[in-house]
Automatic annotation (TrEMBL):
Pfam family, one: Flg_bb_rod
Residue span(s) of domain Flagellar basal-body/hook protein C-terminal: 88-132
UniProt similarity note: Belongs to the flagella basal body rod proteins family.
Name under which the protein is recorded: Flagellar basal-body rod protein FlgC
GO BP of this protein: bacterial-type flagellum-dependent swarming motility
Cellular compartments annotated: Bacterial flagellum basal body
Self-association and partners: The basal body constitutes a major portion of the flagellar organelle and consists of four rings (L,P,S, and M) mounted on a central rod. The rod consists of about 26 subunits of FlgG in the distal portion, and FlgB, FlgC and FlgF are thought to build up the proximal portion of the rod with about 6 subunits each.
One term under GO cellular component: bacterial-type flagellum basal body, rod
InterPro entries attached to this UniProt entry: Flag_bb_rod_N (IPR001444), Flg_bb/hook_C_dom (IPR010930), FlgC (IPR006299)
Coiled-coil residue spans: none
Residue stretches making up the Flagellar basal body rod protein N-terminal domain: 9-36
Amino acid sequence: MSMFSIFSVSGSAVSAQSQRLNVVASNLANVDAVAGPDGQAYKARQVVFQTTPLGAEAASGVRVSAINENQTPGRKVLDPNHPLADEQGYVTHSNVNAVDEMVNMISASRSYQNNVEVMNTAKSLLLKTLQMGQ
C-alpha cells in the first residue's frame, strides 16, 4: 500500500462518519417528535457500514451501505386531547433514545477526528520525505 492510498482510506472513512453524524443529527432533531410527514411516529435510523475495495491496491475503505430504521415501537403517552391520539387516547412518540444518540454522536465525531489526524500525519510524513530529498 502506498502512502497516497492512506488518503483514500481515511477520506472514505471521513465521508462515512459524516453521513453517520447527519443521521444522528436527524435522530436527535426528532427525539420528541410525535408524527412525521407520513403521519406515523418518527423511527430512529442507524447507519450500516461496508468495507469497499479502493482500486488495484490492497487498500480497503468504508462506505455507507444502508440506513436502516429501528423498528422498536415508540413510547406511548396517555393524552386523549391530543389530535394524534389513538382510540384509547395514547399518543405514540418517536423511538429515539437521546442518550444512545449522544453516545453515537461522540463515537462518530471521534472517528472523524481520528481519520483527519491520520491524513494530517500522512501529509506531514510525505512533506518530510520530500524535504529529505532536497
